[in-house]
Design a protein that fits this description.
Blueprint: E1 5-14, H1 16-34, E2 44-50, E3 53-56, H2 66-72, E4 82-85, E5 93-95, E6 99-105, H3 108-111, H4 115-131, E7 145-148, E8 151-161, E9 164-172, H5 178-181, E10 193-194, H6 210-221, E11 228-230, H7 263-276, E12 297-300, E13 306-309
Parallel strand pairs: 1-2, 1-11, 3-4, 8-10
Antiparallel strand pairs: 2-6, 3-5, 6-9, 7-8, 8-9, 12-13
Helix pairs in contact: 1-7, 4-6
Length: 324
């Protein structure tokens, strides 16, 4: 397994479920390699900003009433949020514009880390990321990263399957997150509130590369990890403003290996990618001549005329959880 940490940077605002599908492809590759599949598995970290969404972790699973869910997804002056249950540890939280989410997919066993050491490492990476912006952050008895005893700037909620991690961290960048957090008791902490880098005095003009800085700090902190590759061209979801036509979101995945995958696994890859792209809006003249995604290959003609390869390991569900 390569020690290079691959940075999968998603552009624009992403759908929560689509990113979970992408995350599952990388997790499944790790699990398949553990079961003997001849795959060249690389550690990845997915960074994104989501469209507004509230998610529940394991501790709140099944506890929210339908009325509470309706409240969270109701129209507000700031728009409407979705609601999804998640496999991560922790309780109810918010993700959306103005917040970095980073989902490392790594094998803790390979890096010699226990689950608790991994959570401690993520906290340390959040702290060093904040320090790059001259913001002093620290730990408390509550999981996450804080700038005072009652102001939280970064959250952690992870999931593990046979030592393979998923989900990860959320770091509030701008004050755009505040009205959404005010609608919930985030992470079950009634006497605490969310803050952001901007809210703590960081210059918004300097906050456009937070994801790169976080990944650099993660690569430095992760045992046996080499440099982080920032591969925006590997998987990108361009924003509609980048195109003259009515393009919405488009996903491109590259630089993986289909060798050793069964036809079922290849079909699973195509299913995942088609799910990611199901809301794509494209002019008829810009659609690929190849039609729907085929196992192992995507070709979508949209002015940049990009062609990429993609693959996935076996989709398995031998679950194990870490409640952080």
């Amino acid at each position: 397994m390569s020690n290079n940490l691959r940075h999968v940077a998603l552009q624009g605002l992403s759908h929560y479920k689509a990113v979970l599908q992408l995350q599952e492809t990388f997790v499944s590759q790790f699990l398949a390699s553990k079961r003997g599949a001849p795959l060249q598995v690389k550690p990845h970290v997915i960074t994104s900003q989501f469209k507004p969404v509230y998610t529940t972790g394991r501790r709140d699973a099944g506890k929210l009433s339908q009325a509470e869910k309706d409240y969270l997804t109701a129209e507000t002056p700031h728009g409407r949020a979705e609601f999804h249950a998640a496999l991560r540890g922790g309780q109810t939280t918010y993700h959306g514009p103005g917040q970095l989410t980073a989902y490392p997919i790594i094998d803790l066993k390979h890096h010699g880390l226990s689950a608790r050491c991994y959570v401690h490492l993520l906290e340390e990476v959040l702290i060093t990321t904040c320090a790059r912006y001259d913001l002093k952050a620290f730990r408390t008895k509550d999981t996450g990263v804080w700038v005072s005893e009652d102001r939280k700037v970064g959250s952690i909620g992870v999931h593990m399957r046979r030592h393979v991690t998923s989900h990860g961290i959320a770091l509030n960048i701008t004050d755009a997150v505040k009205p959404w957090f005010e609608r919930i008791v985030a992470c079950g902490l009634a006497d605490k509130k969310a803050t952001s880098l901007q809210g703590e005095g960081c210059n918004p003009a300097q906050l456009d590369n937070v994801e790169d800085i976080f990944v650099e700090e993660l690569a430095k902190a992760l045992p046996d990890s080499e440099s982080a590759f920032h591969t925006n061209d590997m998987f990108s979801i361009p924003t509609p403003d980048e195109f003259a036509g009515p393009l919405s979101h488009i996903a491109i995945i590259a630089d993986t290996d289909m060798d050793g995958l069964s036809p079922d696994d290849q079909n699973a890859m195509a299913d995942c990618l088609n799910e990611i792209l199901k809301d794509l809006v494209v002019k008829e003249s810009e659609k690929s001549a190849t039609g729907p995604l085929r196992p192992g290959q995507i070709f979508i003609n949209f002015k940049r005329n990009s062609e990429r390869l993609a693959s996935i390991g076996s989709l398995v569900h031998d679950e194990g959880f870490i409640d952080a």
